[in-house]
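Hi C.,

You asked whether I'd gotten around to modeling the 756-residue construct. I have! Everything is below, sequence then structure, no commentary in between.
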Amino acid sequence: MTRLSWTALVLLMSILQGPGSSNSGHDRSRNGNSNKNNFMDIRNCFKQKKSFVVVDSFYGNINATNYWRQRSVGGPQPRPPGCEAGMEEIKTPDIQRPPEHMSPWKTKTKVNCIVFVETNGIELENYTRKIQDTWPKIKNNSNILKLHISKWHIDQRVHMYVLYGTFCNDTQLNFTDQGENCSFNTTDTELCHIRCINTDTVCKNSAYGKKECSTMAPNLRNEYIIDINSTTTNCINCNNPVKKPEEKKVLNTTLSEKGGEIIPANAAKLMNDMSNLAANINGSSAEISVGEGVKGVLVKETHKDEVEEVLFAYQSPNDSINIIDNTETLKTFSRAVMLPKEAFDKAIAQNVSIPFAALFRFINMAKDEKNSTVLGNEVLAIEMGAAIANLTDKINIVFTNMTYRGIPSCHSWNGQGSQPNWTSDGCVTNVTKHGITCQCSHLTFFAILMTPLNETISDSDFKNLTIITQVGCGLSMFFLAIVLFMHFLSRRIKATNATKILINLVCALFLLNLTFLVNNYVANLNNSVGCKIMAALMHYFMLATFTWFAAQAFHLCLSLYTGGKIAIHRYILKIAITSWILPSVIGIVLLCIGKYGEQVISYQNTGNAADRVMMCWITDNSVHLIINIGYYALVFLFTFTTFIIMMSWLCCLRNVKGAKAKGEQSSINILSVMGLCFMLGITWGFAFFAYGVFQVPALYLFTILNSFQGFFLFVYYYKTSRMLPPASDEKSSSVSNITDKTSLSSFTNPYSNWLS
């Protein structure tokens, strides 16, 4: 069919359907606005899923829904696109709508648009890549027709009915729509062929054939090729998933100072100007260079309803940043950034005119006040022209195949101030054997800071401390279990208030040791929910243990003050509620705000997985300092003051009773002091001295004493329980009787026997 006859048909259909429903290649080349309208028409056309693609000698499109609806009952009819017909055969149809049974095109197939594609056409090369990717192309090589489509058609799940041949009429085109079953079906006659192609099934899972594509068409760019003459499903994927930006821009902006370091404030100003830069880019993406050590990529999407996630990746700090099509390809790069669709949705909700995403990499940025070490000396910044925060689908920043020393931790900076103020808020660090993943809920500057925790501890000391802790915790659990067994077995002896408080402390300490021993096993399961629950439980029992230390000290002071006559109603119940409930409130709050997770403890400060120990614990160091260190500091201050008071009381008591044999006094004093220390948790205070030259000795003392805390409490409970008389009717005794029963020679610990 000649170009002239089809042009006449297009013009006729335009008259029948109204203005703007038909466009041709000539119209687009003469008028920029027509080009824009035509582009939008064809996008909407393919979004309706089903369309005719006519192999012809020009470009154009018609609204097929109106075209078929206007067919009349009698008289010569306008032939469907692709039919060979002369101008003399086309007559103005009757606009009267035919009965339902007389309209086979309406009942058997519902095709929305007719798109005319010029065979071996080159006109589209004059337009932007967005327009080129939306229009299908037809290549004829030795009478073999090949349809070229883009990833856009596959993402939209377009159904195409490709028409080609020398003669098509109503009868031959009266086929039944295949619907969702359309894959690579064909309706053939001698002179007319219709190929039904579902782009979602034909090409979606095809792998990129770099070698085949380079041989077939070396200059081919990001297309899928389908041989429509073939009778079997086929699709050659020539869409390179690693894409370079369309444009290159160099900005004349000074970011570095004389020493070569990038000034953080200048970097923040650069990112704030991204909206203006996005408006001045003609294409959909651009590579941006801003002096040495600063490279970036900006991607924009003019059609808000088509915004999807954006993937970036690069191999080394000196490489350009690539735009990636799929997550599988990301795994081949050592650095990757994944921006979720939710981030674009939030930007659009804030009335961003053109959705865009800009990723910049800054090498050698000036350090913060703490002189923090940044992994790879790389700082990444993401800007989208809006304040993006509280994302449920997090931004992922992945570093793989990295060699590093220390413990990595993901941090962010909001771009304010003259120096970075790195914080871990809003970012979660996941360290695996493959690499480091930062999951952040907001946009800003990002960096992975390295914390060398074991600078002053040798590998052998670290391993020794680990072994001592594990063995000591196991022994402590064993002896604490014996204490609980003895207590509940000896129900004939009425327990004093002091004993009841001691048993609660034993329970808390037993559960703390248990959760500590199973913590590493749970962490290695790689179950984030289980790890968070494990961290919350261990933290709760640790805080409960601290609280019962304080309860012991409180009971001592109160007993001394009242002379052993405590008249508080339901005294033990009130102490128990306070000591068990208060830590649970703290644990629940931290669990709700997401402060628990997986942490990594390094053996040798290397990046090797074999030298790391996984642990479920608090992920925010600030929370750890405030809650754990601060909470115990208050407890330690109270219990240590009580310890000094009790030791002074013991000295006064010894002067009143008189001295015994020196050897006997010495052994009794040691046992008394050790008993008080473990009941009041004084030994945990060695952690305050684990700095500088005292670090290694303090850690050994802290680990050994606290690991065997259960054993000493068992010895204390065993000796004091043997001194307890059977329960009597008297609920209290005088201070003089208490004092008389107290004797250093019989090792009656002041806590149990004088202060009941």
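If it helps when you're writing up: The chain has a mean pLDDT of 75.

Thanks,
B.
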